[in-house]
Amino acid sequence: MTSASVRGSFGIAQSTRPLLLLAALLALLPALPARADLGSPTLRDKIIAQHVAVYLERVHVRRWKLDDKRSESMFDSYLSALDPQRMYFTAADVEGFKSSRDKIDDYIKSGDLDFAFKVGKVFLSRVDECSKRVKKLVEQGQDFTADEYFQVDRAEAAYTSGEKEADDLWRKRVKVLLLEKLVDGKTMKEAGDEVVKLYENFAVRMSKTDGMELLQIFLTAATMTYDPHTTYMSPDTLENFQISMRLELEGIGASLQSIDGYTVVNQVIPGGAAARDGRLKPQDKILAVAQGESKDFVELLNMKLSDVVKLIRGKKGTRVQLKVRHADSEGAELVAIVRAKVVLADREAHGEVLEVKRGKGLSALRVGVVVLPSFYMDMAAAGRGVKDFKSTTRDVSRIIRKFKADGIEAVVIDLRMNGGGALSEAIALTGLFVDTGPVVLIKHLNGKVDTRNDSKKGADWSGPLVVLTSKFSASASEIFAGALQDYKRAVIVGDRSTHGKGTVQQLMDLSRARGGGEPGKLGALKITLSQFYRPSGNSTQNKGVVPDIELPAVSSHMDGEAELDFSIEFDTVEKAEHSDLGLVDQKLLRRLKEKSRKRRGSNEEFSRIEKDIARYRKIRDRKKIPLKRSRYEAEKKKFDPDDAKEEKKDPKDTAALPDDNEIKRDFYLEEVLSITADYVAALKPASAESYRRLARAALLLGETKQGRALIAEGLRKHPGSGLLQKLKKGPVK
């Protein structure tokens, strides 16, 4: 989070929870493009709901019955998914829904979705009404001298009773938005036009909601009452998930966004068909699409983004025509592109060798930094037996080989924005840094605990290792970081804890559950089947991985797993026997912490982070926003006393989170590199002992080859070590 983003959030209630769950689509519903007439539930919808009900009762780790108690939670969850701040539904609406409060379980079991569609239609009608109400309120003008307030968090507030109460609520909401824009320097007309346009565009997008989108929202609201990670994926959502795992698709190679009803190019993906063509640029508007040689163009204005994507995406070798208005032109150009395979290289693991200055007379320390956005794996290709399927571990192994050829002395793995992925990849990646041994323990539905081991002998990198985490690091990231911490293999640096997701999900293709049919046609249920634990037996659930060295960041103070509704409880299992590699100990950590603390104490940028944290917490904890202009401005200055000064300074990011393939060498990463340099220096005097312990462990296990490899590596770095020379002759007794 940047200083600017903290400041800009003053006037609007924001979710602080990391958006690393598919279920986040519920909170983001107002941004979902959506069709005017939802129609009626189909036979397909009925079948999907019935399959979801069966899986929930039979295989979910909690083994809860789908009954009246669950029904009441599902009822509340669905209304909250549509209207989280209780701005749209009225008290009368909710009263009319309440007869179904204890019947949601029966509806899902039988596939009766009339209630879900009824509620959805009421919501869409309220959205349309409120858009018109906002326009009326803006046109009539507002009094900014009245001493009144707007309640920030309305998640538990009463629904409005009658038009008068609804008008008053929306009047206050409009005043908040107007004040925010006026204080930012907009005229009243500019501010009013922007607010009206905001809600008009929202109403247009929502008017396009179709039945499958609503079904996904309803079923996900229901399934999340079992745990936050059990969600229903529509066919479109499933396809996008599969793309994110294999990091490739077929299309033109451009990411798109919807702005004011227009389809706008956000990014042209390097190496894709659009990049090779060269005519499509970021901020260009795509006005219409035609297939092949056809002159039958489909206009895209106010079309939902998912439908636009379907028109543009297609099999490699096929042709698509785009009517494009370039960002620097008023006219339109016809751009024809032959679709091709697109590799999402910006989401791959990527690395760079960075140099860190050391003391006088010493050469710079060369550190290999790997940014790992996710634990991806082409599951379909792996299932088909493809030998070289896309894999996180393969990519990182390739990067490390290059690092070693470049003469690095340490490795940093950046997991700050890694929300997880394939469990098998977390295990395999751990094996690049440790010899064989347990990586994760998994407790199944029946209570049985299995141990998943890294079975690959040897390690790709046995030198100094630092792992960088944040509140956004979750699931597979926590398996990897937790295992290395338990093995005392790496120094963990970052936020006060990771996200805290200690559960394992599996995709259930509902088409296959039907007994055949086209894969993905009915979507899939991502369901929690088991829980995972570190080699120590501790779960990461709710508590996450606590770093060895904490660095201040705004993200540390954001919600994690423990704050999510229906989160599974923390527990432990019996530990698995695993090695203590002796590369991290408390004495060493105390030295590293103290050196880091001293550096940060004189670092202006870290001082600014502390200020940002204080501002963020004030904003997060406030209960109401003043609607009197003078009071609003005074409170804003209170939250942001250095606002004007910092704007002039062009402030840097204060959380230093990686962006795409760029490894941003800012003050945060500089501190991580300094910690790494301190760690390397601290290890050197004791490295002979460390290698002795490693070699002894290997030899005693019968891994003589591995032991001798460790000794050889120690001798390369410490050729004068008498102890290692002795070890070279045979096992230590």
Specify the biggest β-sheet.
6 strands, antiparallel
Mean pLDDT: 86
Please mark out the parts with pLDDT under 50 across 5 or more consecutive residues, or reply none.
Answer: 1-36, 643-659, 697-703, 718-724
What is the count of β-strands? 21
What is the helical fraction, as a range of percent? 40-55%
Radius of gyration: 28 Å
Named CATH topology of the largest domain: 2-enoyl-CoA Hydratase, Chain A, domain 1
Class inferred from helices and paired strands: alpha+beta
Characteristic key phrases:
single chain, 733 residues, alpha+beta, Pdz3 Domain, 2-enoyl-CoA Hydratase, Chain A, domain 1, 3 domains, six-stranded antiparallel sheet, six-stranded mixed sheet, 21 strands, 42% helix
Would you give an account of this structure?
Helix content is 42%, strand content 15%. By secondary structure, it is α+β, with helices and mostly antiparallel strands. It has three domains: 36-226, no CATH class; 248-343, Pdz3 Domain (Roll); 347-601, 2-enoyl-CoA Hydratase, Chain A, domain 1 (Alpha-Beta Complex), CATH 3.90.226. Helix 17 links the parallel strand 16 (465-469) and strand 17. Helix 7 runs antiparallel to helix 9. The longest helix is centred in the last third of the chain and has 34 residues, at 667-700.
Short description:
42% of the residues lie in helices and 15% in strands.
